[in-house]
Amino acid sequence: MSGYYLDHLQYLETEAIHVMREVAAEFERPALLFSGGKDSICLLRLAEKAFRPSEIPMPFLNIDTGHHFPELNEFRDRRAKELRGKLIVRTVEEALAKGIAVQAPGQVSRNHLQIPTLLAAIEEFRFDCCIGGARRDEEKARAKERFFSFRDSFGQWDPKNQRPEIWNLYNARLNPGENMRVFPLSNWTEMDVWEYIRKENLEVPNIYFSHPRRCVRRQGQWLPLNDLVPPKPGEQVEDLVVRVRTIGDIISTGCVESPANTIDDIIAETSVARVTERGSRADDKASEAAMEDRKKAGYF
Amino acid sequence: MSIPVHHPVDLLRFNTCGSVDDGKSTLIGRLLYDSKSLMDDQVEALERSADLTGGGQINLANLTDGLRAEREQGITIDVAYRYFATPRRKFIIADTPGHIQYTRNMVTGASTANLSVVLVDARLGIIEQSRRHSCIASLLRIPHLVVAINKMDLVDYSEERFLEIRDQFEEFLPRLSLKDVKCIPVSALNGDNVVEPSARMPWYSGPTLLGHLEDVHIGSDWNLRALRLPVQWVNRPNNPSDPLLHDFRGLSGQMAGGVLKVGQPVMVLPSGFRSVVKEILTPEGRVSEAFAPQSVTIVLEHDIDVSRGDMIVDPEILPGCGRDLHAKICWLHPRPLQPGKKFLLKHTTQTVQAAVTAIEHRINITNLAPESGASELAMNDIGEIRLTASSPVVFDGYAANRLTGSFILIEPGTNATLAAGMFHHPTEVARPEYRDFSI
Ligand SMILES: Nc1nc2c(ncn2[C@@H]2O[C@H](COP(=O)(O)OP(=O)(O)O)[C@@H](O)[C@H]2O)c(=O)[nH]1
């Protein structure tokens, strides 16, 4: 046959664009979740491609836990401006102050507080759909996630009650108060994301690249040392040359020792990596079912 | 650090099916494990759960068991997707479990597959379930089928037994519309012929399962003959800063069939307006030619009325178009289908109302024979039905094009997805209202 075939990145791209356009056509008030992390950087490029020469016809939404890496927020704000997009940021801080989110006594992590904060933002702006950058290869509980993931009026995900997805026909219908999460990158792997970033020559926050950082050893990983993560007595603290593979909160994102300075280096490193990227996030380690529980409660 | 020299060039989607205990989870686990697609923390988690529940034995099947509910019940309940890559190809596995909800799950998992792997227990041979899985693969027009004859270790790696089972399958084959079938003897537990060739079956000279998955030709799985572009979204820039874009009117969608060229005459259905392709944008930029399944935005020479749900086609190869529709469906919902009910029918980018006017018969999915006298279709049933739509549907027979030939039925009110449907070949091609009208 002729040259009429798509390589794997082109196939994933065409599929993701189809999904994004379906969102633009079927929903009245969609939003695109943009954190500045590598997956949402790909999402943004796909949205540009899906809708050009028009501008991306939906606002960007980010839930800021207050524990973000400062580098990430700086990048997020700059990219949104470059794309002339409308960026909406809602903070856990604010949600705590308003009583929308409540912190359990003694708990430092704000990961789970993203949930009520996100749900409140959805209500505030009456979003009917949020596009997110989650991938099925990230974690077991995600492996069954749909492209169009239905949430009831409490924002909950019911793994037993998902709509079957057949061919490329997505059932996007909702009743008032219900909500859809849509994941155009469902079929992408960590490697695909990096290869796409390389192919499209996309800028990523500098913490993905190797940099010197003071880290503390905790539960088998190196956590970035900062005011929120003071070393406990007896803990090992070291100055290392590290990078991050996946960006969560600054208190739970493990750093890996790495000399990777370019996207090519990262790709080479990813191809020989022996640990999944989520293996470097403390929030997922707690229990094997941790992700599943958070998803049921309305996590992305 | 060196950059990997070889990049996977294309992507193969496959699904695996078998009855409970045929060894499906073990086989997938083996594929991932032996192709070195597992990470240390996954192996570690495997080992951890082996100590807790498995008496210390690593259980490859645990790798693919996802949700807690499943772990509690000890079964998988839905379709799960797995990813792995070799230097040759990237793979997406749709893991569809084998229990009561089976047909529903398999239809879901297999609808996008290039290839199906049907697992057969070598001790049992071709049983009713194996026939069922092959029939569904055939109904869904999955281009390639692999019959993996598993647990060869339990039949002493016997060539005779393998040939016996292969013959059983071939007897059944003429009933199916499967073009490419391959039988491979494997032992998922021990790894024979999964990734590595088996020293214990020197009589088998064919490829290993992975070898076949890497080699099978998928380049012609898309219909490149007849142009089909369902219009998904009309692209009109809002207050563009570039004055050249003021009058821009693009038609966006994913090519469902054929090749599209600048300068090519096209017809818009159902209206029948004709025009010529002026510009094509793909993710790669402006091009002179695009093909299925690319997502494109095109501009036509004439400013004609086109909206979401319309289809742009080759005027020389017209699809069917009509309100009276004939189709096979797989019923997915616990509440059975009764004739007379009204639904929403989503087909390509169009959603219309449709009433099921008749259930013609149920299809026996172990031999594809029609069973007449069906008054309803229950969950997991496949049947032939007649529908009447509220407005014309532009479609192809599913056998000609999986994308323009498929649809889903949605229940108004609950919005549940109730059925997966496949249109029969149209009896009449589109006869557009304005057939000879071109601007
Ligand atoms: N002897 C033997 N046992 C196997 C083989 N493949 C799977 N099994 C066993 O068959 C049982 C069912 O396997 P499993 O993968 O859970 O089946 P599934 O229900 O199809 O996913 C398990 O005890 C496996 O260890 C094989 O090739 N040889």
Task: List key phrases describing it.
heterodimer, A: 300 residues, alpha/beta, Rossmann fold, 2 domains, four-stranded antiparallel beta sheet, 9 helices, B: 439 residues, alpha+beta, Elongation Factor Tu (Ef-tu), domain 3, 3 domains, six-stranded mixed beta sheet, disordered N terminus, binds guanosine-5'-diphosphate
Structure in a nutshell:
The complex is a heterodimer of chains A (300) and B (439). Chain A has helices at 8-26, 38-51, 70-82, 92-97, 114-125, 190-200, 263-272, 282-285, 290-296; strands spanning 30-33, 60-64, 87-91, 129-131, 148-151, 179-182, 211-218, 221-224, 237-244, 255-257.
Given as residue ranges, the uncertain stretches of chain B (5+ residues, pLDDT < 50) are 1-6
Enumerate the spans of chain A where pLDDT stays under 50 for 5 or more consecutive residues: 284-288
Order of helices and strands of chain B: EHHHEEHEHEHEHEEEEEEEEEEEEEEEEE
What name goes with the CATH superfamily of the largest domain in chain A?
HUPs
CATH architecture of the largest domain in chain B: 3-Layer(aba) Sandwich
Computed CA radius of gyration of chain B, to the nearest angstrom:
24 Å
CATH superfamily of the largest domain in chain B: P-loop containing nucleotide triphosphate hydrolases
Number of contiguous helices of chain A: 9
Relative helix content of chain A:
25-40%
- Order of secondary-structure elements of chain A: HEHEHEHHEEEHEEEEHHH
Mean pLDDT of chain A: 88
Quaternary arrangement of the chains shown?
A: heterodimer
Distance between the termini of chain B: 60 Å
Mean pLDDT of chain B: 88
Number of strands of chain A: 10
Strand content of chain B: 25-35%
